[in-house]
Specification:
mainly alpha; 10 helices
């Protein structure tokens, strides 16, 4: 299975590179084995037959177990890299908030810097997504520029539309992350092919609809079809948050599979990048909803 994250589907934890996935056919060198991380192994095969450690484990009829020091990714690696990436984003966002005021005299300048940071962040994200290896420098640079953009955007919403909006969006994002993590670990969310297909179909439909709305807004003026303002804007914002929560579940599954099947240690950076993309998505949807609700007061 490929995650919706281009990070995971392009290089990390995907079938093409032997990392864990649902959509993998049985490989030569050993029988398919199901594990706690990938209970579908017996149906779809173990994608790590090429891994000498996984090969040895399969010959003994056991799930792949990494030796203590093999350079393979662990949960500690994922947590550390994710903390580094999110920490960089938060620091630059705080600096942008403090150093780029959004009063009437400085609003245009701050808007301009924020817009440039957004474009640079998007370019860096696409470059990393299509690279075959994780680049910590690219990932941290993306986080830095994305933080500048989010800092300016959050300051505008917080200071000119809804006081306290940024903190509310942060709390909402943290609540969604914690809720999905608990539900996933408790087994209330089962990430299988049906779940993946539903999420991907919903995400494609959502993105296409938002693109159509944007085109109408650009060429027709106003709010386009109104999908991002008013009651419809709130509705689609909630849909966006729900999709973000589903993406988190997919990301958790990909990380769990990567660890179980011995993904290289450097792939922890891809996990951090993918999780950061999802959290930014959720935060921006929360911020949009708060702005809409307060602009209608």
């Amino acid at each position: 299975m490929r995650s919706r994250n281009p990070v995971f589907s392009r290089r990390g934890f995907s079938r093409d590179n032997g990392y864990a996935g649902f959509n993998t056919a049985p490989q030569a060198g050993g029988p398919a084995v199901g594990t706690q991380a990938n209970p579908y192994g017996q149906q779809y095969g173990n994608p790590y037959a090429q891994n000498p450690y996984a090969q040895q484990d399969l010959q003994h009829g056991a799930p792949p177990q990494a030796p203590a020091t093999t350079g393979r990714m662990t949960m500690d690696d994922v947590v550390l890299r994710t903390a580094s990436t999110l920490g960089t984003l938060i620091v630059t966002a705080a600096l942008a908030w403090a150093l780029l005021p959004v009063d009437d005299a400085n609003l245009n300048r701050s808007y301009g810097i924020g817009f440039v940071a957004m474009i640079v962040g998007m370019v860096l994200a696409f470059v990393q997504s299509f690279k075959r290896t994780a680049s910590p420098a690219l990932i941290l640079s993306y986080a830095a520029f994305e933080g500048v953009f989010l800092g300016v955007l959050s300051s505008v919403v917080d200071n000119r539309i809804a006081s306290g909006a940024a903190m509310q969006a942060v709390i909402g994002t943290m609540a969604v992350f914690a809720g999905v993590l608990v539900a996933y670990k408790a087994g209330w969310i089962r990430v299988n092919r049906r779940f993946y297909g539903f999420v991907m179909a919903a995400a494609i439909g959502f993105v296409l609809l938002m693109m159509v709305n944007l085109l109408f807004a650009v060429f027709g003026g106003g709010d386009g079809l109104g999908f991002r303002s008013g009651p419809l804007g709130v509705f689609f914002g909630v849909v966006g948050i729900i999709l973000g929560a589903c993406f988190l579940a997919l990301d958790f599954k990909q990380v769990e599979d990567g660890i179980a099947y011995g993904a290289p240690k450097n792939e922890a950076w891809l996990a951090a990048f993918g999780l950061t993309l999802t959290l930014v998505w959720i935060y921006m949807e929360f911020l949009r909803i708060i702005a809409i609700l307060n602009s209608n007061d």
